[in-house]
UniProtKB/TrEMBL annotation:
Protein keywords: Acyltransferase, Transferase
Matching CDD domains: BsCS-I_like
Name of the protein in its database record: Citrate synthase
Pathway: Carbohydrate metabolism; tricarboxylic acid cycle
Catalytic activity: oxaloacetate + acetyl-CoA + H2O = citrate + CoA + H(+)
InterPro entries: Citrate_synth-like_lrg_a-sub (IPR016142), Citrate_synth-like_sm_a-sub (IPR016143), Citrate_synthase (IPR002020), Citrate_synthase_AS (IPR019810), Citrate_synthase_bac-typ (IPR024176), Citrate_synthase_sf (IPR036969)
Organism superkingdom: Bacteria
Organism: Caldalkalibacillus horti
Family: Belongs to the citrate synthase family.
GO molecular function, one term: citrate synthase activity
Amino acid sequence: KDIKKPSVTGLEGVVAADTAISLVDGDKGHLVLRGYWAKELALKHAFEEVAHLIWRGSLPSDDQFNQLKKKLANERDLPEYTINILKQLPEQMDMMSVLRALVGTFVLEGARWPPTLDQAVAITAKIPTIIAYRHRLIQGKALVAPKANLSHIENYLYMLSGEAPQPAHVQALEAYSILTMEHGMNASTFTARVISSTESDIVSAISGAIGAMKGPLHGGAPSGVIEMLEEIGNKEQVEAWIRGALERGERLMGFGHRVYKTHDPRSLALKEMIGSLEGQDEWLDLAYEVEKQAVELLEEFKPGRRLYTNVEFYAAAIMRAVQLPEQLFSPTFTLSRTVGWTAHVLEQAENNRIFRPQSTYIGRTPN
Ligand code: SDX
């Protein structure tokens, strides 16, 4: 009896857990973080304020805000052994693999289970340092130590370049990081929760989440957007290039979403933001043209699938505008999403049950 091709639902439409952390409303195109519109949080608040909201359920008082900034600053350094391992890693290893490997080396304070907020803060604080140190090392530049008096995002940009970052860049990247900090039960968050559900430790959960985030169908898409725009080159080539890709059955990076069946609100918010960033005009003009034609052609080739830009499309524009190199796009997404991942690990531990879905056996029947 021939074996039929195994169908994989990707758990579409399946509810894995209740959560109080965020609402991703795919029909209305709404993203709510602990009761606040994500877009408003991005326009009005700092990374650390929204991280406090995601972790603890409320925006911080001034005192709590200063406490958290101090805690994050105190946890930015990497242990000597981690830096030694970092220096041994082969040149050709990509940054997401470096992050996955190095987070796995953390030996955290406190018990393995249940995970603690201090552990979540410690991991979140160290991710920017790993990215910046590795980035400097492979360029043969001296490491730039973190500066305690700089905010989370400011310090990240400072450690990458060794100079005080432009305020406009800090502001744009801070808004981006808030918009991407948390997004419900996406593949990498689900991974973190599955690992946590076995009463494993938070380091294992975040290492696994980084592995899931790395994939181009998930967090690996922004660099694909840049490559697509570079290949298209100019407005006259847009239709032919996209038509060709869709005829070859290729996926357009930065388009489509499992949940959003209308515009991704983060993409709309980022698109509004980049308009104000200088020196983006010709590249942005092309991006706007690609979005317009891609949405039309996706409807022609995939009628009724309601495929629009997702967060990655304009994330690429923001990261390019703040002069982050392409190989730092997914790592920067990881930097912000670590807050959401760790919040879900903490929430899972409050009322845990091991994840163990079913599968349908289509193999041979035993004699
Ligand atoms: C993120 O889940 C989250 O919340 C993720 C995220 C987060 O914040 O955590 O929002 C971040 O991961 C955004 C997505 C980034 N990925 C990309 O931009 C890669 C391109 N996108 C696609 O691969 C796809 O749209 C997914 C992965 C995002 C969603 O996949 P689904 O829900 O499994 O959709 P599908 O593959 O079932 O597609 C439905 C149809 C298919 O055609 P048919 O089989 O019905 O003929 O639409 C087509 C697909 O071929 N399609 C696309 C497409 N996306 C879907 N066709 C061309 N280009 C695309 N981008």
